[in-house]
């Protein structure tokens, strides 16, 4: 029986065009770092260190540690110089990206209804960013971080999507079995892979990433409106 629902954030709880988000993100970051990098330099370096973070499988390192380990090997600057700038960026400037996102009433109401029915809710966003930026995006979506039992971020997670270990680490943290969980997301590769460890899956099609709509890992699929109806039909756990 499903008692726990995991949600991707960008393109799922938070409607947005991922390409627009990435473009605006690097514009804002390069503006913040203009004393040290050009737009091309910071974009290339952050992308390479992000790839390193996604690919790493060292359980002793958080994603944050993996990212900055690689990042500071690529730049001729000390962490003491750049870390405070990164922190201020995610605290303040990151919010300038909000304009490229929207809110979806169906998802907001679905979350409220799931809470009322007693489901455990998790934000299972790909942990490429600091917790502050995840909290900002939850707020942009019209939701509260208190709605969720567990929220992934690069400070606390050791793996990234689409690694199965990412989902296993969440289950370990929330002390749940995969058979009691459903993963809801808009990325066919990164989100639906949760099926491979025994979770149910629901593909949100409004901002879908990928083209393999017959993928065996998809249990359910539909629009935001369809998902809201799906939630309405779920049993109450209270």
UniProtKB/TrEMBL annotation:
Q: Which Pfam families match?
A: HAD_2
Give the GO molecular function terms. hydrolase activity
InterPro entries referenced in this protein's UniProt entry, alphabetically: HAD-like_sf, HAD-SF_hydro_IA, HAD_2, HAD_sf, S-2-haloacid_dehalogenase
Recite the UniProt keywords alphabetically.
Answer: Hydrolase
Name of this protein: Haloacid dehalogenase domain protein hydrolase
């Amino acid at each position: 029986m499903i008692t726990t629902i995991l949600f991707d954030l960008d393109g799922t709880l938070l409607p947005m065009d991922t390409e627009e988000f990435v473009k605006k993100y690097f514009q804002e970051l390069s503006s913040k770092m203009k004393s040290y990098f050009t737009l091309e330099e910071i974009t290339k370096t952050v992308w390479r260190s992000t790839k390193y973070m996604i690919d790493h499988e060292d359980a002793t390192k958080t994603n944050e540690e993996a990212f900055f380990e690689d990042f500071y090997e690529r730049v001729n600057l000390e962490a003491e110089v750049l870390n405070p700038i990164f922190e201020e960026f995610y605290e303040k400037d990151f919010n300038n990206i909000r304009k490229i996102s929207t809110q979806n009433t169906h998802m907001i109401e679905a979350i409220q209804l799931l809470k009322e029915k007693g489901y455990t809710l998790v934000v299972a966003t790909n942990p490429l960013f600091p917790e502050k930026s995840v909290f900002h995006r939850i707020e942009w979506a019209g939701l509260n971080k208190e709605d969720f039992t567990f929220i992934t971020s690069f400070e606390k997670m050791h793996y990234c999507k689409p690694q199965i270990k990412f989902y296993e680490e969440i289950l370990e943290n929330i002390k749940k079995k995969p058979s009691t969980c459903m993963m809801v997301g808009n990325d066919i590769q990164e989100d639906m892979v949760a099926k491979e460890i025994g979770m149910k899956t629901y593909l949100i099609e409004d901002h879908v990433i990928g083209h393999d709509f017959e993928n065996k890992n998809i249990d359910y699929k539909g629009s935001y409106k369809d998902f809201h109806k799906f939630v309405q039909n779920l049993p109450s756990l209270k």
